[in-house]
Amino acid sequence: MSTPSSPPVLFDVVADMHAPELYQPAAVAEGVARLEDIGPEQIAFFRQHGYLVVRQAFSPGEVSAARDGLVDLIMGKRPDFTHVYFEGKAKEILPTLGPEERQDAVRKLGNFIEFDARLKALSHHAKALAAIRTLLGGAEPELFQDMALIKPPRLGREKPWHQDNAYFEYPLGTPVVGVWIALDEATIENGCMQILPGRHREGPILHFQRRDWQICDQTILGTKSVAVPLAPGGLLFFDGMLPHGTPHNSSPKRRRALQYHYAPAGVQKVAPAERLKHFGGEGQNVTC
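Structure (tokenized):
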């Protein structure tokens, strides 16, 4: 009689350490306190700069529940959930780690909202969806990607500079809104988001397959970024064309975040060749 086999263990890429000069924030992003504070001035700011910060979008209870949901998935409390990716550099040590220690070897999770109601609740939060609808120009938002992005202490790798639309099979010009939600305090030291405001209006930037699917380092070197530190429950709305990246976590603190992407409902996706034509031919089958 056969016994059920364990799901395969998935690993992220192993990437070289980035040059520190790639992340040189000259300023820290400002924003509004609550989702209710978003008005015409903030919408105009988003259109011009490509981002909008809400410092306390979700309550401590909502954040705590989402964090618990994430931990439950990492710890295998839903055996049918298999989209947990460990840091590539943890491959050799993973067999030696206990259940709690494994939490600090995880790089990302994906496609989880139907496996945990607490995580789905944030992706369908009524006030957040109302803001996204406005940012999409009045179109009904359709959630098409859900991820948890984790930078374990000391181990969490860089996500190099990129535009998210370089990963998505939507026609060029389709508005896409990303939502990045801090579950832990996100700081410059532990790898908070860094952005290049206004450059979403420049159109596609050529990407290459180097440490990841990314904008060329030479394009970024010498550019001063804006850092987006967030307290737990804070969020960043950002345009799918906004260049952004997150450096290696050099601190002893966890940096767990959720990321959701929305496009107007009903927009038909295009063939990968269309995306590659605009963002670069090395991006076949890439994932965030």
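The chain has a mean pLDDT of 94. The radius of gyration is 18 Å.
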